Structure formats: C-alpha cells, structure tokens
C-alpha cells in the first residue's frame, strides 16, 4: 500500500482487499433433473459436475471454485429434491446435508425446467426453509 494515502483511503483499500479475498458463494437447489449440475458446469466453465439423463445423479453436496479477474467464487451443487426413489426417500436427509455442508451463501439459485413455471405446493414446502434461513 502506498505511504502517502489518507486514513480513509487506506481503510477503503483494506475493505476492497477483504472483499477481493472473500469468495462469493452461490448454491444451486432444485428438483432432480432440473439442470443444477449443468448450470454448475457453465458457472465454473468446465465439466466438473456429473450430468445425467435419466436417473438422479448428484447424491451429495459438492462445491467447486472459480476465479474471474482475481475474484474467486464458490458454486455448490446439491442433490435434487423430490426424486421419488422409494428406496431412498431422500429429501429429509438431503436437506440436512445441505444445511450442514453449505455455509449460508450470498445467493441461492433455484434451478427449474422451463415448463415448470409454477411452484408446486410440495416444492414450496421443501425449498422455502432455505431462503428463510439466509
Ligand atoms: N434442454 C435442456 N436440457 C438441459 C438443460 N440443462 C440441463 N439439461 C439436461 O437435463 C438433464 C439433467 O441435467 P443435470 O444437470 O444432471 O440435472 P441435475 O439437476 O443436476 O440432476 P440431479 O443431480 O439428478 O438432481 C441432462 O440430460 C441435461 O443435459 C437446459 O438448459 N436445456
Ligand atoms: Mg446433479
């Protein structure tokens, strides 16, 4: 830092540096197959997350780090809710996993397929706790 700065300028530079070092956190949630992992790959700019065609694919919370112009960001991929697999019955476990593994993000992204232009009551019940917790 240059010596001839005023205190307010120093403080501003320190604050900018703090912001630069703190990654922006983005968490993606949505129903299974909505395109969360595909969106993660677009945000990171590489095929880091597995994408699937016919079966629920992402069983855990994973996070990936990207950088743009020296600013870093973290993208969290999450298991799809409402997968309806009888032997998994996973939503409760998935929600617990997300709440324990994701530090409250700066942004929750709700990923939906284009034809799903309305929240079903089941989705509303499952997803609203995330927004209320942030
Ligand atoms: N047409 C279309 N297909 C997409 C889009 N995004 C994803 N898909 C397809 O949707 C399917 C599911 O994508 P994923 O990214 O694996 O979905 P997901 O939400 O991560 O699924 P789970 O991990 O199983 O919950 C794949 O066949 C993708 O190619 C999109 O924007 N348009
Ligand atoms: Mg996935």
Would you kindly provide a written description of the structure presented here, covering whatever features stand out?
- The chain is α/β, with parallel strands linked by helices and 134 residues long.
- The protein has one domain (23-133): P-loop containing nucleotide triphosphate hydrolases (Rossmann fold).
- The protein has four helices and four strands.
- The protein has helices spanning 7-21, 36-44, 91-101, 121-133; strands at residues 24-30, 62-68, 71-77, 107-111.
- Strands 2-3-1-4 form a four-stranded mixed sheet.
- A hairpin with a 2-residue loop joins strand 2 and strand 3.
- The longest helix is centred in the N-terminal third of the chain and has 15 residues, at 7-21.
- The mean pLDDT is 85.
- It binds guanosine-5'-triphosphate and magnesium ion.
- The site of magnesium ion has 5 residues, from helix 2.
Topology, pairings included?
Blueprint: H1 7-21, E1 24-30, H2 36-44, E2 62-68, E3 71-77, H3 91-101, E4 107-111, H4 121-133
The structure holds guanosine-5'-triphosphate and magnesium ion (MG).
Magnesium ion (MG) is lined by residues 36-37, 57-58, 77.
